[in-house]
Amino acid sequence: MARARFITLDGMDGAGKSTNLAVIKDWFEANRLPVLFTREPGGTALGEALRGLLLDPATRCGLRSETLLMFAARQEHLAQVILPALQKGIHVVSDRFTDATFAYQGGGRGVPAADIEILENWVQGGLRPDLTLLLDVPTEIAIQRVAAVREKDRFEQEEAAFFGRVRQAYLDRAAAAPERYAVIRSDLPPEDVCRQVEQALVQAFSDWWAV
Ligand code: TMP
């Protein structure tokens, strides 16, 4: 049997993750593939508790602590959820993963990428996503979408320049490893966005049906 795939969905707040998660769910269902959907920070009891703290606007937290807490949640998520599923042949789709740390704590807050890489190697060993669907929209559109929808969490409250840096960090990572990323323009008409997502999934599974 071919190896189960680890797929992540990432991008700025307001880039359209919820809509596209629904597209991804439909695609897995239509193709009758076993899949587990999960999210970061979160996915375990400890991870969800850390998520509550990390997203709470009342939390005061330094750069390094914030980065370490993201990786603490990730360590649990990998050990309890992601790796066991992959080992059982179940595909995993995670709503955010380590690209978010490089983008938010790295690009947004200024933690050196080299420091994040140390934690990435420590926690993940050699594991990297097979495919990262990176949703991209102009920063102003993302900010407008977040403002329109709900009460803002600790990250969403950041200023526009922060989100500009987050977006750039995501795009830089995708440009540096284009074989792992599908950059999805998510401000196009819904059917075009849906087609881009489905094409990326078909490509990621191209050898799956052949085996
Ligand atoms: P979301 O899942 O609703 O998008 O909220 C998660 C927030 O946490 C989002 O603003 C991005 C942020 N985040 C980081 O800053 N670093 C990380 O490593 C992860 C996974 C998320």
Automatic annotation (TrEMBL):
GO biological-process terms attached to the record: dTDP biosynthetic process; dTTP biosynthetic process; dUDP biosynthetic process
Catalytic activity, as annotated: dTMP + ATP = dTDP + ADP
Keyword presence, Nucleotide-binding: yes
Occurrences of domain Thymidylate kinase-like (ranges): 9-196
Record-given protein name: Thymidylate kinase
Organism: Neisseria leonii
Role, per record: Phosphorylation of dTMP to form dTDP in both de novo and salvage pathways of dTTP synthesis.
EC number per UniProt: 2.7.4.9
Entry GO MF terms: ATP binding; dTMP kinase activity
InterPro entries: P-loop_NTPase, Thymidylate_kin-like_dom, Thymidylate_kinase
Coiled coil: none
Entry's family note: Belongs to the thymidylate kinase family.
Keyword ATP-binding part of the UniProt annotation: yes
Keywords: ATP-binding, Kinase, Nucleotide biosynthesis, Nucleotide-binding, Transferase
Binding site residues for ATP: G11, M12, D13, G14, A15, G16, K17, S18
CDD domains in the cross-refs: TMPK
GO-annotated cellular components: cytosol
NCBIfam families, alphabetized: DTMP_kinase (TIGR00041)
Enzyme class: transferase
